[in-house]
Amino acid sequence: MVASLGLAQSIRDQACSLFRTAQSEQLCCGRPLEAVAAASVYATSRCNGLGRSRAEVTACARCDHQRLTSAYNAMNIELELPTQPIAATDRIPRLATEPGVPDHVRRRALEFAQTARERGLTIGCRPSGVAAGCLYLATQRVGLCLSQQQIADTAGTSPNTLRNRRDELLEIDT
To answer: Which bin fits 147, alpha (ψ -120 to 50), beta or left (φ > 0)?
Structure first.
């Protein structure tokens, strides 16, 4: 899973250690081992501030989203993991990679995400939707032709959410 996600060997080692800890704390009982392994990878990426979503981990794991979520929640609560909140700035680099967005546009999208966070626009919003809105606004500002649907599909959100976040950004952007 770690190799499929393009994560470093150190992340693999940390995930293995977390898996062993979950086993010793009896968190594997009643859960598929594949789900606990996937949850270990997801939790390790969260603890290290990497922008991997549950959907990305599930795509390369042999378990479904619900089982990964259940195993992750149990690990997070019982082991008191030092997970970091997911931010839109964590999602933008991965989101910009698939359509091949240039670095200057990516940096502009990160600036929009930072501004949105500072102004409180991200409260109560999914980070992927905010990231999609920031990236779309950045591409519009430089005249790069990426469709709302393309960015929304990559982010795992809807074009309507993307437009709403973009419109909120336009209200505060000068």
So the answer is: beta
